[in-house]
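Private note to self, pasted from the team thread so I don't lose it. Backbone tokens:
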């Protein structure tokens, strides 16, 4: 079975095996030996609310090398859990943490036969190891570092995702991308960006709370580290990303956090629900592992902090699927399920990623699992392990968890299942964008990553919006609303109830009547845009009303009462606040409040200039100016006729008619300049135009068209050998012809300097760092100039013309 400990498409998988000096005990019979390497006694804070009893038992320091961690389950309650803790100590173990509410104790022991003795206790329902690799101390344990490590990377075990990284990206300036459009997040933000009363727990590898887009979003008081033995540590260093972790692990939690709630501050990106608070709940250690005790700690912390939503973009290691029939796997499976159930009991809606196919493997149908040859991923995998019955991926397949697949943009506005995304009828509840999603990474940067890890936080963000407008809703009610309001894409085995819908979350099932908004509440004068509405009468015709519109378009509300209405404000509409009505033919009506922004000036092409003639055989570099950092689409296409007159008569025969348009989308620089390069343009008449695009991917402004021509390669001039006399003073162009002015002997080939299609090397005296190339001719005799004027339309032979050949940056 393929899966993802961190369910994202990352650079490489932080998978591990046991170090040579710390051999793992088998999962079926963990029997570690004693060691002289001590682990300092940890001071464990209370995990539960005042009435709970999640307290660790005092215990002496335990040797860590060759030690094993365990989960011990009892009947929930203070008395029974205390009895299970006593059984742990009696069997030669140390209690790491205990949760009376769910009857779970986590422990460590170096004693041979520990688990058999604990299981024999009448106070214990089940007990088993949480891993197959021995726990060992790290050199910096005394200095506050992780108190355990899973040793060295291994090969042949399950990866955390596909081995690819999409891109590192400069500050995108909150440009609206497909993932934001697909879930209608900008329209939702115009209605409700989320309430600060809503808290979302990011169970992951830690959040960089110093990132400019997250510094105002993370609540330090609600954050915790659980990645050291599953013991809650509220110190900020414990819930920050591990500096020594692989890039894939270190970035993961910060990337997920940005998708949910990056600040709406005009820079970087903006999250689905920027108005809510985030809590960093670090459940991933520096080696990229999420062991059961980490996950249990994370979910119990979410319950204690009364979080509204959690996001888990991972699966619990070391098993891709935990099997209830296996006596060593079943206890951890039960314990994690109890923790998830308790979080839901306390009002938390839990969202999880469906997981990814491993590198080179096909995605997994979670509803019809067969064999797993990639687990355990912390020691030697067991080939062909049967996971077809009673085996579950944690936490995605725990009851009540909202499980999310990844979708990507298809043709014609459709969506497709991402190739890496796991799926399964009855397992996947919803889908969301997970391909090339741009978000925050530690250090103030941004990166595009792909994976179900990126899909799940879109759903968590929408769930946070639902919690904002339905403050009294239970997790079950929020889960039902998510499914009811989703897009309904099929098949359900891929998409569940369909694409999650942020706008529906803040407008539907609220009895608020008709609502219509512009994305982020902004319209630009003269620019096309699309209003989104909800609550209209199904089938009624809806139209925007007001003097601000040059033209009025209409749209018909669908069966859910939703509408998408194209509009365009007049170019002269004053900037500032504007209100207008959107009315339905059946009487529905909504008032739209927007902020009108100044009309964007169309981009200007500065090179080539109107009427320019360019030599063949060279790339055509189009340069111009637009607004700062805008996306500009430059299009070169055939023109009706050559600019600045006809092509020379002698060149007509070899002038090809351009028959194909080419486009290139580039980003303007901070000074507004842009550049696009087109190679291999055929001879003939061309025109170039440029369009600036708004963040909503609608045309905002088109610049003037510039006409130019590409001259053909000149036809050979017949020489004496062909029996055609050469005009006095003319320079022969064909092979074997001689120039009367050059004194060349018969048989020499003489081509006029600066002939079209023959670029000359740059004059060293005039060359610059801008890589300017000279394409004009050098001064020549009067007779030569006359021929050039007639043959190729070159005027002013004595002055060369300079053209830029810089490549697009």
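Design output:
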């Amino acid at each position: 079975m393929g899966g993802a400990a961190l369910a994202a498409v990352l650079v490489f998988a932080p998978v591990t095996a046991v170090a040579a000096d710390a051999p793992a005990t088998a999962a079926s019979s963990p029997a570690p030996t004693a060691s002289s390497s001590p682990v300092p006694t940890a001071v464990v804070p209370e995990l539960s609310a005042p009435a709970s009893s999640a307290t660790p038992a005092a215990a002496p320091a335990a040797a860590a090398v060759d030690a094993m961690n365990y989960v011990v389950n009892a009947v929930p309650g203070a008395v029974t859990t205390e009895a299970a803790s006593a059984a742990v100590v009696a069997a030669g173990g140390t209690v790491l943490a205990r949760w009376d509410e769910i009857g779970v104790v986590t422990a460590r022991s170096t004693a041979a036969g520990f688990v058999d003795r604990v299981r024999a206790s009448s106070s214990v329902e089940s007990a088993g190891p949480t891993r197959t690799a021995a726990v060992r101390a790290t050199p910096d344990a005394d200095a506050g570092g992780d108190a355990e490590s899973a040793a060295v990377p291994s090969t042949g075990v399950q990866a955390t995702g596909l081995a690819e990284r999409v891109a590192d990206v400069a500050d995108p300036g909150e440009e609206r991308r497909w993932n934001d459009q697909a879930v209608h997040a900008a329209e939702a933000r115009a209605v409700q960006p989320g309430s600060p009363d809503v808290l979302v727990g990011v169970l992951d590898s830690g959040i960089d709370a110093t990132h400019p887009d997250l510094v105002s979003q993370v609540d330090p008081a609600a954050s915790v580290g659980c990645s050291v033995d599953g013991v809650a540590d509220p110190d900020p260093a414990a819930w920050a990303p591990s500096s020594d972790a692989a890039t894939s692990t270190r970035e993961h939690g910060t990337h997920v956090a940005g998708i949910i709630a990056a600040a709406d501050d005009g820079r970087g990106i903006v999250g689905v629900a920027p108005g809510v608070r985030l809590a960093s709940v670090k459940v991933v250690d520096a080696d990229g592992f999420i062991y059961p005790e980490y996950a249990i700690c994370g979910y119990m912390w979410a319950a204690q902090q009364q979080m509204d939503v959690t996001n888990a973009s991972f699966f619990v290691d070391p098993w891709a699927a935990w099997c209830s029939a296996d006596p060593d796997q079943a206890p951890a499976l039960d314990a994690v399920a109890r923790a998830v159930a308790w979080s839901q009991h306390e009002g938390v809606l839990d969202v999880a990623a469906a997981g990814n196919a491993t590198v080179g493997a096909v995605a997994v149908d979670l509803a019809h699992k067969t064999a797993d040859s990639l687990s355990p991923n912390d020691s030697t995998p067991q080939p062909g392990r049967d996971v077809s019955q009673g085996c579950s991926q944690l936490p995605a397949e725990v009851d009540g968890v909202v499980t999310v697949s990844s979708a990507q943009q298809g043709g014609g506005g459709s969506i497709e299942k991402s190739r890496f995304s796991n799926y399964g009828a009855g397992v996947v509840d919803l889908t969301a964008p997970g391909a090339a999603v741009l978000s925050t990474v530690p250090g103030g940067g941004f990166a595009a990553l792909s994976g179900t890890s990126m899909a799940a936080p879109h759903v968590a963000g929408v769930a946070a919006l639902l919690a904002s407008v339905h403050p009294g809703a239970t997790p079950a009610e929020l889960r039902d609303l998510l499914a009811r309001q989703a897009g309904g894409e099929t098949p359900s085995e891929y998409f569940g109830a369909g694409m999650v819908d942020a706008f529906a979350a803040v407008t539907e099932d609220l009895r608020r009547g008709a609502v219509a908004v512009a994305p982020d509440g902004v319209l630009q004068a003269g620019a096309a845009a699309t209003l989104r509405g909800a609550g209209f009468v199904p089938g009624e015709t809806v139209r925007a009303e007001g003097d601000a519109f040059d033209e009025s378009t209409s749209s018909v509300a669908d069966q859910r009462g939703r509408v998408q209405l194209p509009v365009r404000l007049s170019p002269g509409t004053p900037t500032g606040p504007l209100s207008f009505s959107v009315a339905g033919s059946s009487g529905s009506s909504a008032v739209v409040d927007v902020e009108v922004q100044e009309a964007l000036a169309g981009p200007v092409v500065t090179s080539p200039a109107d009427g320019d003639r360019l030599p063949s055989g060279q790339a055509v570099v189009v340069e111009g100016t637009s607004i700062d950092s805008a996306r500009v689409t430059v299009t070169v296409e055939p023109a009706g006729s050559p600019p600045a007159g006809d092509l020379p008569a002698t060149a007509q025969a070899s002038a090809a008619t351009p028959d194909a348009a080419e486009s290139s989308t580039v980003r303007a620089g901070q000074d507004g300049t842009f550049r696009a390069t087109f190679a291999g343009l055929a001879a003939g008449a061309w025109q170039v135009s440029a369009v600036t695009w708004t963040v909503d991917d609608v045309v905002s402004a088109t610049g003037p068209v510039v006409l130019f021509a590409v001259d053909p390669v000149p036809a050979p001039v017949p020489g004496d050998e062909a029996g055609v006399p050469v005009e006095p003073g003319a320079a022969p162009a064909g092979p074997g012809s001689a120039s009367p002015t050059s004194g060349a002997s018969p048989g020499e080939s003489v081509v006029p300097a600066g002939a079209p299609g023959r670029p000359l090397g740059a004059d060293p005296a005039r060359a610059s760092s801008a890589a300017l190339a000279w394409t004009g001719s050098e001064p020549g005799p009067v007779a030569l100039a006359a021929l050039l004027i007639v043959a190729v339309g070159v005027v002013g032979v004595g002055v060369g013309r300079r053209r830029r050949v810089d490549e697009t940056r």
